[in-house]
Model the fold of this input.
Amino acid sequence: MPTRLAACDPCRTSKVSCDHAKPVCGRCSRNDESDRCAYRDRPFKRRRTIRSSAPAAIAVTTTPPVPIVTDSPSASTSVPHVYPNPGYQGRSSHAAIFDTVQASGGTALPEVVLQDAILELEDAEKAQHAKFLDDLKKLDLRGCAELVSQWNHRGVNLAIAGPLLAPCTEAMRTLFRDKSGAELATLLFRSSRERLTADGAMSIASFCDKFCRGDPGWATLGLFLVGVSRAVEDTAYYPALYSTRNGQRHLQRTALRCADQCLEICLSLDCLNDLQLLLQYENFIAHSMIDGDQSYHSWRRLGDVISTIYALGHHDRVDLASLASDTLGGLRSQTFARSYSADKNISVFLDRPYRMHSAQSTLRMSRNDVESLFHPVQTSPSAQFDYTLETRWTVACKQLKHACERLLINLCSAILAECDLLMDILPERYRLGDHLKNFEGSAAERDFVASAALNLHHVQFLLYSPSMTRTSTPTPELLMVSGAMLKLTAEIAMLKDSLANSGTGFIWKIASYGLPAAGAICLALVSRTPNLAQNSPAVPQAIQDMSVLVAHMEAGVLIRPDQPNYALLQRATATIKSVLNRLSLGMLNTQHDTPAEQALGETMRFPVFGNDNLDFELDFWTNLAEHPALFQDIT
Done:
């Protein structure tokens, strides 16, 4: 039996035949790769996860990331190291106990110098990362940087990492200049291995100069790529990079997959820091816009963000007063606040348990706290939109929604008073008037005006929802609030091209606010109490607004089949159209019920609309389509 000979690393990586010549094979000699031609000592033996030369090392296994531009494998799957960042350790941890012993006069513990171990990557892994960066250079990064800059000039930015995006983009302009993939990989790994320690009082400008411009790492590259994906999402036509819808979607997905690769490499180093947390959050937002709010990818990535927040201990030092400050502590508080709000929104939307609770953090909000959040706000028509304003408004509304969801009936009047307070302290410039189109400001500001009003209406919607009275018939108060939400949602659909993301996407507003409002109106129209719908002043206008949503959906203006949440919106609008058609024909609530139907109405609570179903997702519209009043329209 012939002896098996191992191929050299370049031949093995390129998957070509090797003549096994030593010290340099023929192919490497012809290709002038003599310096890279090397043979593994144990080519046919499985690598050990723990080396004998480093007995104290810890082997870390990471999940392989999604393949990106090439078919190369993912980041390092197992690397020996001394754990570089233990993160947050609470009062019950062993570290806190020994610190207490030492502070109480106990024997001083021997000083242990934990040096970051040198992570020696295998040659194959070095080649993989170098190839990834070489392929990344084919994306015309200079053109991508110009697109991101133009996107920023339009007043749009990342919700939290916005102040870091411009420095990251600037760093990428020079980083890829005259450097090979191998040189770039070495530089990025050296920067990413270092413990990124910074005090919360450090200014954002100093943080950017030190960790974005001066010493870029994998997280810096990842933030830039997330910015590219978001900029492509909001720019339908950019001839320097793409000119068709397919080209736009391809570049958007490619940039996000590359950002995923950068994030997975950061995670494989097992060294948490603030820059990585910002990348995780913005990566989650970008995935929700590509995969949809019902996708498991978005759900899992939000969970990763929450895990990192707890691991870094940011939940234990949330400071509402710092939300508007230009410091690293402000960024940390903003990240916690937005993650807390996102967890509430997604959990309600999907009817899943919360993963973040205010009781597990220092997040507390009294009336004085709410007032202090908005007193320092200075609005100027010429200034760019401040994304921290949307963060403050969102977290204030989420606190009120949390009280509604706990069914605190005795606090109804207090919650309504808090809603009035919020509207009073919101800068007058951002208060919604009669029509959204009359607002004079940037696209991002107009989007925030709509989001602020919808958020406050949603608080009232949860307060007046039938879960309070345990009945499936909407109350007059709920119909009024639903009509206001639906009216604003329809106007958003018509003004889509004049809006820019101020913290939440266009489709999220339709799905999270428009569908619940339309569902309540439809429920009133098909219920066995017709006078409720006929006598409500909000219903006639709501019927017109639902017609607008249906028309935009059928025309492909509202959402395209390749966009997220299409299935949810398509089924919901089909049911709304059925209700409108039968209403126009006078077929709803015009026939007397038979005794059997009356008995059915007494026993059937249809559809269930309680605290465990606070939003109108796909199951609601499926059940509503099977209502006896619409049964003849089912095909």
